[in-house]
Design brief:
Blueprint: H1 14-18, H2 40-47, H3 51-61, H4 74-89, E1 93-94, E2 102-112, E3 117-120, E4 123-125, E5 131-133, E6 141-149, E7 155-157, E8 160-162, E9 173-177, H5 186-203, E10 208-212, H6 221-228, E11 232-235, E12 247-250, H7 252-261, H8 266-273, E13 281-291, E14 293-307, E15 318-324, E16 329-330, E17 336-337, H9 340-359, E18 367-373, H10 381-388, E19 397-402, E20 414-420, H11 427-437, E21 441-442, H12 458-462, E22 468-475, H13 479-492, H14 508-526
Parallel strand pairs: 6-9, 9-10, 10-12, 15-18, 15-19, 19-22, 20-21
Antiparallel strand pairs: 1-14, 2-11, 2-14, 3-4, 3-13, 5-12, 6-13, 7-8, 14-18, 16-17, 20-22
Amino acid sequence: MTINQRYSKRSLSLAGIVVLLSAAATFAWQQPSAAPALSASERALWSSIKVDTIRDVVKALSADDMQGRGTAQAGGDKAAAYLAEWFTRLGLKPVGNKGTYLQAIKFDELEFLPATSLKVGETSFKLGPDFFVAPPYTGDRSVSGDLVFVAYGLQSNIPKRDDLAGVDVNGKVVILMQGPPTFVAKSAWKSSVQFNIIRNLVLRGAAAIVFLSNGHDEHPYAEMADYLTRRRIDTAGGPDLSFLPPFLSISDATADKLFLAAGTTRADALLKAESKNFAAIDLKQTAKINLQSKKKQGFGNNVLGLLEGSDPSLKSEAVVFSAHYDAYGVSSDNRIFHGAADNALGVGEMIAVAEALAKSEVKPRRSIIFLATTGEEYGGLGSTYWVKNPTWKIKQVAANLNLDGMGTEVYGPIKVLVGYGAEHSTLGNVLDDIAAASDLKVIPDPMPEEKSFTRSDHYFFVLKGIPGIMLLGAPAGETKAWVDRMKAWEKTDYHQPSDVVLPNWNWDGPQTIAQIFSVMGLRVANSDQMPAWVKSSPYNRERGTNDPAPEP
């Protein structure tokens, strides 16, 4: 699952980065309806999902020789070839480019080198522990300027405040608080206020902008630095941002040293920043910033296989199963990010569904596409590319069923399901009916603060007007128990080299996820009508349209 929305990097745009995390929308949850039992063909499909297939695929993809399946790295290419081989073995038709299973995507890669430096006075700070370069990335450059602390940079009448009063920021290195402050509504701050502050400082000629935590961040500095000092990937051909000043974030320890040298403390400066009578603080030092990076271009691939539908009228429409196969690859210090739970597990489940449907005697009426995406960890790049450059008519994509998650399905036999996006379309009704017939309980998202609905490939289908859903499975018992276990795993293993297959994994859970989704896909494929949006959903639009995303 991508850190995209989690770390405000889906588009890598200035607004997306500086505004930080968006809040999740709250929708009424649809209650399950009375459900008929599974049909004979659905029961046969259910029973044909193989645990061995899931286990074999997960272990193969997360093995050392796959090198973390990095986007535009050799390991990613090897994983794509492995999946194409699976599709060939299952008799799926290629629906990539030029009669192949692969859809090539050109990527830009950027990684800041250890020579990247921040020096204030006679004190040098180290990339990673002390500071990191924040998006949007402006290219290699060297700048210098006197340091000035402008709190939140606010200039407003309500509240009446001017953090820039008496300050000429032209040529200065501006230290800016990450908000929101206690006296500004969080929603307003995220939607526009902070972006306008940044734009104002840029237009006034700030030499650089250095972000400082106000102590209320959802993610600590060390966590952010871990991600944002890794190599960065984006689809090739992005905008030229070299006109922007550098953006840096500094640790609390770094900030302590900067304020101490100016005869004050960080704690005192933060206290003054919340005051209505704040006045900018001259830190009486010159900062020198030198950005040095390694840039190159490379290719990665989406992998696509087609099971052609049996109905002459409906086979031109398709249900798309998706699962991202990329992880973070191999780092510059040769660490392998194995990505077992996120998301070799989802790919294994999708392959098991493809295998069961391909071998079924009764074929679905609509066609079914199996899409293994690359670049998901960098903001859904592979899925975004496919919906913009589809290898199937986008208006004839019935739905997207996405397999991605945090590995909660391996905690034990699944008794509870969460359908991310279920409340927005009739896919929620399909899930409810199948769950009820299978003695499983569907619950609302117990972790709305994680914003999971907007953090994986299905969301980019949704933004194109295509109903999409992603499943989370969990064991019986109190919700808090498995949520706490998942959050503990997030802190230690999520997007880390330690995300590997563990001996205590219960493989019955992944099998159940694959079984539920296989029957969902079959029902959607066999229905007379494609899934429809709930009228009140903010995503309710015609398939294939490119309306801007509603604010989550």
